[in-house]
Amino acid sequence: MSEFQDKVALVTGAGRGIGRAIALAFAAQGARVAANDLTPIHLDQTIAAAASTPGEARAFLADVSKKMEVQAMVEAVRDAFGRIDVLVNNAGVEPHASLLKMDEWDWDRTLAVNLKGPFLSMQSVGRVMAEQGGGVMVNIASIAGRAHGLKDRSAYVASKMGLIALTREAARELAAYNIRVNAVCPGRIETEMTADLRQDEAMVARWLREVPLGRLGQPQEVASLVLFLCSSRAGYITGQAYNVDGGRVMC
pTM (2 decimals)? Predict the structure, then answer.
C-alpha cells in the first residue's frame, strides 16, 4: 500500500499540464486529491482521468490570487476530506511582453497568481496543517527564477524568483509546526503552455542545444519529483529548490 493512500493533496492549477500530471500521480497512489483550477473547462478532464485510479479527485474552483476564494476553498477541502496533508502550488501564468511594452495589468496579474497565490494558499493551508500536526508543501517555480532568465518574461521571472525566496522563508518559519516546504523548478516541459512556442522548429532546436540530455521534459517527470518531496523518504529535506530541466541549469 502506498504511503499516500487516503492522504489528502490539494493541487492548484490541476486542469492541465504539470498540475494535471501531479494530481493524477497522487491519485494513482491512492490519495484523495482536491483538484483546483479557475474554471471547470479543463478540470473536468482531470477528474475524469482520476476515476480510473485507486484514489479519487474532486474539483474545487477558485482564483488563487483572491484571499476570500482561497480561504473558502481550503475550508471546503477540509470539510470534504477532514484534513490536508499536501499542498502543491502549481497555478501560474506567463505573459509574453518586453519590459518596455508590458501592460500593467499583465504585471499585476502575474505577480498575483504566481507569487501572491502561493502565499495565500500556504497561509490558509498552513494553519490547517499546524492544527493537525504537520504536512508538506511544494511550490512549482521555474529555472527562470534561478540562473536562467527568459526574454520578454520579466514579470514571470520576477514572480518565480520571488517564489523560490518565499519557499525558503516559509520552510524556515513552518518547520516549528512539522511542515516541510520545497520548490521544484521545471525547465522546458511539453505542456499546453509551451505548445505554441513548440511550433517554431528553429526555437525548439535552440532549446535542445541548451539541454545536455537533448530533449524536452514531460509533465510526469516533474510529478515524480513532487511525489518524492512529499514522501517520508524526503523527511529531512526542506527549504530547497530542485531543477527538473535536463541539465540546462546546473547549480
Answer: 0.94
